[in-house]
Amino acid sequence: MGIETTAPKSTMISGKVKGYIILIALVVVSWAVFKVITPNNFGSPENMLSYLQASLIAATGAIGFYFVMVMGMFDFSIGANIMLSAIVGCVLATKLNLGYFGLVAGCIITGALVGLVNGSFYVKLRIPSMIVTTGLALIYESIANYIAGGVVQTLPADLRAFGQMPGDIILAVVAFVVAYLILNYTKIGTYTYAIGSNEFVTKNMGINVNKYKVLAFIISGAFLGTMAILTISYGSSMVAVTGMASMSRNFVPTMGCFFGLAFRKYGIPFPAIIIGEFVINIIFFGFIALGAPTAIQDVITGLALLIIITLTTRVNKGEIVK
């Protein structure tokens, strides 16, 4: 019995160490490449701190989205959720004079409600989550546009504590801790992985699969609402857009979530999401420092991240990790 209990722990520790080494190497290599190419306006300690702050915003939403993606579902309404949540929070904070309470509660509750609608429609309609959330995104954009009244919603300077240190770091860390506790110490986390590994077996065990799918969307929505707080606090305003223009906000949280899925085999999905988002921002700001056109930035960044994910997603057939 002593050998059986010791071996898995040793394997898990070495796996985690390997995962962290790969992630740190990605950060160092990404930084070094752009630092060599453009040493004067990239990669200083002040710059790196700015990149980190930007990455924390997306990581906060990505850790919530992980609950959905690990079950094999997807959400195309991420950007619309962030936009709607930020606008509702801003309106409650400013027009209703609820201050920080209105901002925080408005964003998180709105995000969770959007998640509830997404999950409910998905399990009731029994059609792919991508189709459901794409259609709903159009509705969320319209609602956001109606609430904003065609006016840019601006957060006053005295309500932007979450847009700068230490407020943004504190909120992000609280979100990370809550997500970690849910995933590792609750039935929700256990069933999330079980459904993602084998939904049919999980259902035969008597677990209400649809219930936990809806809960996954609610949790994801709440964390996207938290991301909305950081987004509008950092950028100071939010514009309501229509015609699926909000989908441009889907990319960065989704790519960070891919890092989490790729490094799940090492047992460090959440650290991988946080560090992965940091790598994404290093690459993004590196191209900005180079003065590369936006189209070129998107193409090269996308290719670089696809290569990174491909190289780190090789999981042996039949391997089950948690």
Can you offer a commentary on this structure?
The chain is an all-alpha fold. It contains 12 helices and 2 strands; from the N terminus they run αααααβααααβααα. The chain has one domain: ABC transporter involved in vitamin B12 uptake, BtuC, CATH 1.10.3470. Strands 1-2 form a two-stranded antiparallel sheet. The longest helix is centred in the N-terminal third of the chain and has 36 residues. The protein starts with a helix and ends in a 10-residue tail after the last helix. 45% of the residues are buried.
Salient structural properties:
322 residues, mainly alpha, ABC transporter involved in vitamin B12 uptake, BtuC, two-stranded antiparallel ribbon, 12 helices, 75% helix, 1% strand, globular, disordered N terminus, disordered C terminus
The CATH class:
Mainly Alpha
Main β-sheet: number of strands, strand sense, barrel status? Answer: 2 strands, antiparallel
Helical content, roughly?
A: over 70%
Distance between the termini: 22 Å
Shape: globular
Strand content: under 5%
Structural class: mainly alpha
Low-confidence stretches: 1-12, 315-322
CATH topology type? ABC transporter involved in vitamin B12 uptake, BtuC
Lateral arrangement of strands in the main beta sheet: 1-2
Rg to the nearest angstrom?
20 Å
The H/E string reads: HHHHHEHHHHEHHH
User: Could you give the count of β-strands?
Assistant: 2
| CATH architectural name | Orthogonal Bundle
Number of domains: 1
Whole-number mean pLDDT: 87
Q: How many separate helices?
A: 12
